[in-house]
Amino acid sequence: MKNKFKLAITAISVAGLVVNAPSVSASSATFPAKGKTITIIVPYDAGGAGDIGARMLAPYFKEAIGATNVEVVNRPGAGSQVGITALAASAPDGYTIGFTHLPATITTYLDPARAATYNLSKLTPISMMVVVPTILVARAESKYKTIKDVVDDAKAGNKVTVSDSGILSDGHIASLQLQQLAGVKFQAVHSSGGAATTADVLGGQVSVGTLNVGGATNELIKSGKLRILGVFSSAKDITFPTAKTAKAQGYPIVVSTSRAISGPAGMSTANVVRISNALNKAMKNPEFVAKANAAGLYLKFMWPVQLQRYWSDMEKATQPLIALKNS
After folding, report:
1. CATH of domain 2-132+258-324
2. pTM (two decimals)
3. H or E element: which one contains 108?
4. 104-138: b or e for each residue (b if 16 or more CB lie within 10 Å)?
5. Three-state SS at 292
6. Which CATH number is associated with domain 133-249?
7. 161-219, pLDDT tens digit by residue?
């Protein structure tokens, strides 16, 4: 089972895939129409790292694509299922796009118990924005200093609650892996996003929480309100290089979340090309890059064909995890 976990997290690379920027056809010249708003759905609470990243990108995307207005709308709930359900049900005219976090989007529709009305065939992958590692955190007043402290507490028979952003989200997967490797049992607390998990941890409602580096999380760590217990990465974190990886603490777990931008199925190729080109231009804007780097966003752009490959590979690798969600 441990090997399956490793496969699910690492066998999703698109390294070596060379893709040129797609060209914009004349038929897309009228998109977006003057006076029309492009809506970006964020399927998590306002204030989380994903929401902050989306709002940071929006003005640069607006400029790049020439839209009258770009509006970020939060549709949290059910570990992103509410927001992505709305995205998949939107008109495929290019005026509604949204963030489809991976693996959370995939695990939601692969899990029969979730009864999701969407899957990859109901969505149009457009571009990748961010691939960022998962971290385990505790509030400053916590007795926990390391991952081992959390494990030892659970082994002692104490109740250890772990907040994450939803069932089989990257944080939940990290928690499941840790339980498997350490031979312990945690109580999962599934929240509606990073902001809710942060509130759970800071308020003492849970023992620890799983978050992603970036946005408000960074400020809370830098100010000492949150403490990183471990980074689920193969290498030291570039934002917090003194934080120990889980591997360095004896738990070889590598988990990340990927923030992809997608639309509903049925979008025209011309509009997909125009949006992906605009996103690429926006993400190369030096001002945006500086802000993103300062926020620890770990930018990782992908063209539609690259994202399609990445998504499909992750879907195949994630399938074995579904049976473990209740473990």
Report:
1. 3.40.190.150
2. 0.76
3. helix 104-110
4. bbbbbbbbeebebebebebbbbbbbbbbbbbbbbb
5. helix
6. 3.40.190.10
7. 999 988 888 999 999 989 989 999 999 999 988 889 999 999 999 999 999 887 788 89
